[in-house]
Specification:
Number of strands: 13
Structural class: alpha+beta
Number of domains: 2
Shape: globular
Mean pLDDT: 81
Radius of gyration: 22 Å
Low-confidence stretches: 293-298, 363-375
Number of helices: 19
C-alpha cells in the first residue's frame, strides 16, 4: 500500500473514532487528526495563519484547541511542516496527496501496535472486494504476527467502530466490506450487481449511471425517482452510489454522485480522502439547482471555477461572507472582507477545485461569464460515509438480506482474494 492510500485510511479511521469512546487505536486517531488539521491549515502556497483563525479551524474540524491542538501542532512542527510563533503559525504549501503522505509518516512513526496497522491494511483489502471474516482473521494473524484471538478481537473492534462493515453469512462467518467498494469504476463489480437484479431493475440502474455520467451530480429525489426508494437504498447501503448532504437555515439537501467519478487521478481512496471535492461539488450543485434565483443561481460554473483554479478571486459580493462556511471550515476557500459589507473569495486548494470541476464538467453546465460567485449558502456538509452509515443503521432485515446477496454476487464474480 502506498503512503497516500495509507494516510487516507488513517484519516478515515480517525474520523470514525471520534464518535466512539474507544482508546484501542489512540495512535491511529492522533495521526488522523494531525492529517485533518494539516489539510485545513494548508493550501497550494505557503502562508501565515493567526491564532484566532487556527483555533476556529481546529474547532470546525472537531479538534479541541485546549486539549488536542497543542500536541498536534508540536508534532507538525517536529515534522517541519509548520513554524509556530507567538501570534500564529506559518504553513508550507501542500497538495492533498502530500498531506496524506505526511499523515502516513506520522502514523508509522508514532505506532508500534500491530492491531492498528492491521485495520488499515484490512480496510484496503475490503475496499477491493468483500472478504470473509475467517479469511481476514487468518491474513492479519499471519501478516502482523497476532494470535488468532487477537486477530478476531481486532476485527470485532473494527466492525464495532465502523472501520469496515459486516454482513453475516452461513457457518457463523461474515463478509467484510466498506463504502469504497465502487470507488474504482470496475466493470466486473457493476456487471455482478446488474446480473443479480431483474431486467427492469438492471435497466433502471443503467439509466441512473448514464444520468450521473452526464450531469456528474444529481439530487437524491431525482435518483430515487429513477430507481425507486427501495432499490436505491439497497445499492446505496453497499456503496454503489454516494449521497452528500448540504445544509443551511432552509434545511438539508441531498445529492448523489458515483464514487468512481472522483477517481480522475488514481484509483484509490486517496483521490478525495477528506471529501473536499465532494463538498465542493455538492455545494456547487446546490447553487446551480436549488439556490434561489434572487440569491443568484450559479450559471457559468466552468468559467468561474477555472478563474479560481488559476489563482483568481471572485467578488466582491455580500453573500460570499456567509454562503461558503462548509468549504471555509475545511480550508478549501478563504473569505475576507472587501468594502461596504461585501466579501471576496479565493480558492486555497487548486487541486480540489480541479477534481470538483472534472466531475461537474461531465455535464453540460456552461454559460456566459459572470463577475462574481452567486450565493449558494451552504453552511453544513455531511459526507457520503456518514449518510451511508445512517442508511445501514436504519436498514430493515429485508434490506440487509438484499445487501448481503449483492455482496455475495460481487465476491463470486471472480473478485475474491
Amino acid at each position: 500500500m502506498d503512503k497516500k492510500t495509507q494516510g487516507a485510511w488513517v484519516i478515515h479511521h480517525s474520523q470514525k473514532l471520534q464518535s466512539t469512546q474507544s482508546q484501542d487505536f489512540d495512535n491511529l486517531g492522533f495521526a488522523g487528526k494531525c492529517g485533518v488539521l494539516l489539510s485545513a491549515i494548508s493550501g497550494g502556497k505557503q502562508f501565515q495563519l493567526a491564532n484566532g483563525r487556527l483555533n476556529a479551524l481546529a474547532k470546525a474540524n472537531k479538534i479541541s484547541p485546549r486539549t488536542e491542538l497543542p500536541a498536534i501542532l508540536s508534532e507538525l512542527s517536529r515534522q517541519k511542516l509548520i513554524s509556530v510563533g507567538q501570534s500564529g503559525i506559518e504553513t508550507l504549501g501542500l497538495t492533498a496527496h502530500s498531506v496524506l503522505e505526511h499523515t502516513a509518516g506520522i502514523f508509522q512513526e508514532t505506532t508500534d501496535q500491530p492491531h492498528e496497522m492491521a485495520v488499515v491494511e484490512l480496510s484496503e483489502i475490503a475496499s477491493t472486494s468483500p472478504v470473509k471474516g475467517s479469511e481476514a482473521t487468518e491474513y492479519i494473524s499471519d501478516t502482523f504476527k497476532l494470535t488468532a484471538d487477537d486477530a478476531r478481537n481486532t476485527i470485532d473492534l473494527g466492525k464495532g467502530i465502523g472501520f469496515f462493515d459486516s454482513e453475516a453469512i452461513a457457518n457463523n462467518d461474515s463478509l467484510l466490506f466498506n463504502g469504497n467498494l465502487f470507488r474504482r469504476d470496475d466493470a466486473q463489480k457493476v456487471s455482478a450487481i446488474l446480473g443479480s437484479l431483474n431486467n427492469a431493475e438492471s435497466g433502471l440502474v443503467v439509466e441512473l449511471n448514464q444520468k450521473l455520467g452526464e450531469a456528474g451530480c444529481i439530487s437524491l429525489n431525482s435518483a430515487q425517482t429513477i430507481l425507486g426508494v427501495e432499490l436505491f437504498s439497497k445499492l446505496h447501503s453497499i456503496g454503489m452510489f454516494d449521497v452528500s448532504v448540504v445544509g443551511n437555515e432552509q434545511g438539508k439537501n441531498y445529492f448523489v454522485t458515483r464514487p468512481a467519478a472522483f477517481s480522475k487521478f488514481s484509483t484509490t481512496i486517496a483521490d478525495d480522502a477528506l471529501d473536499l471535492a465532494k463538498a465542493f461539488v455538492a455545494s456547487l450543485t446546490y447553487g446551480m439547482t436549488v439556490s434561489s434565483y434572487y440569491r443568484g443561481r450559479i450559471q457559468a460554473i466552468s468559467l468561474l471555477m477555472k478563474k479560481l483554479i488559476a489563482g483568481g478571486e471572485v467578488g466582491p459580493a455580500t453573500a460570499i461572507g456567509s454562503d461558503y462556511q462548509a468549504l471555509e471550515h475545511r480550508g478549501v476557500v478563504e473569505v475576507r472582507p472587501a468594502h461596504g459589507g461585501m466579501f471576496i473569495m479565493k480558492l486555497l486548494k487548486p487541486e480540489v477545485g480541479r477534481l470538483a470541476l472534472s466531475v461537474i464538467e461531465e455535464g453540460d453546465i456552461t454559460a456566459e461569464a459572470i463577475a462574481q460567485l452567486p450565493g449558494a449558502r451552504v453552511t453544513e456538509y455531511i459526507n457520503p460515509e456518514r449518510s451511508r452509515e445512517v442508511e445501514r443503521r436504519n436498514a430493515s432485515p429485508a434490506l440487509k438480506s438484499s445487501a448481503r446477496n449483492l455482496l455475495n454476487e460481487i465476491r463470486k464474480g471472480g473478485l475474491s482474494r
